[in-house]
Amino acid sequence: MGVFEAPENLTGHEQVVFCQDKPSGLKAIIAVYSTALGPALGGTRFYPYASEEEAVHDALDLSKGMAYKNSLAGLDLGGGKAVIWGDPETDKSEALLRAYGRFVESLNGRYITACDVGTYVHDMDIVAKETRHATGRSVENGGAGDSSVLTAYGVFCGMRAAAQHRYGTADLTGRTVGVAGIGKVGRHLVTHLIEAGAQVVATDVSEKAHDWLSANHPQASFVDSTEKLIASDIDIYAPCALGGALNDDSVAALRAKIVVGAANNQLAHPGVEKLLADRGILYAPDYLVNSGGVIQVADEIHGFNFDRAKRRASKIFDITGQILRTADTEGVPPAVAADRLAERRMAECGRLRSIHLPQS
């Protein structure tokens, strides 16, 4: 697949940059979907893709999602994403991360990076040695720290809004929530849910995740596969691992009546949103409810203040409710209602950037 011949749902990108530094082993792709609202902000995923085509597809897909996410979050930022092709456990090095940082810097601010799957706060500290355009750095280095904190909080807010819409109350006491993926975000989300009085059933491929759950929340249950989780008697399903969790098979097997999770690109293909609606399953779009992390790192650009960022992330409750009500009114799935709102803001506010301003 050539970049210019990408599938229709992945076209429209402004720029795709292939970055290579052979001595360090860096092979990276930076995809800028849109700068209509401002510089493209999105994390860096470090992952051992099976092929270059798979890496390109992920970069294109994720960067488009970031444009919509940033728009819905009310940020004056566009959407971009980077992927580093390799195994973070064996291929990551200071030289590789610094080489990547120089490529980010070469874009002169069109793309602002942050953490994602396979990259962490200390990695962004290293990347930031070579670029001014890295967020998600450590607090010690003037950054916002771990963005999974507000990502999980935003998902929790979105989940409460979905419960309000479905059940008439945002109270999660006694509700059973199935969490697939107990990683950086999933762990914070599980803690929020336990504190809110929910019953948690979780799964993860990592034995360490199971050990963490047993040690920190022994009242939670653990099952050994996502297939068992979605087929269990749960009220709410929270996909918090990699994308594509909602497909024809998983939707058919799902017993939950609400889906609200942290994973990006949960819908495996166009049309899954209709399958969910046809089954009476309320789906809160992933790029809406998981936007707390990008709100956190975006706040870092102007000097980070956690309380200010958390107040902004708490508005995910309100916008989720608005989108769910709009979807009912217009007779469309929530994912369609969310897309329309994001696209309208990109078009209406992005248009203003064509008005010439004098140089200061």
Automatic annotation (TrEMBL):
Q: Where is the active site?
A: 81
GO BP annotations listed? amino acid metabolic process
Residues annotated as domain Glutamate/phenylalanine/leucine/valine/L-tryptophan dehydrogenase C-terminal:
145-354
* Keyword entries, A-Z: NAD, Nucleotide-binding, Oxidoreductase
Superkingdom of origin: Bacteria
For the ligand (NAD(+)), the binding residues are: 181-186
Q: Does the keyword Oxidoreductase apply?
A: yes
Protein's UniProt name: Glu/Leu/Phe/Val dehydrogenase dimerization region
Tell me what organism the protein belongs to: Stackebrandtia nassauensis (strain DSM 44728 / CIP 108903 / NRRL B-16338 / NBRC 102104 / LLR-40K-21)
| Source organism phylogeny | Bacteria, Bacillati, Actinomycetota, Actinomycetes, Glycomycetales
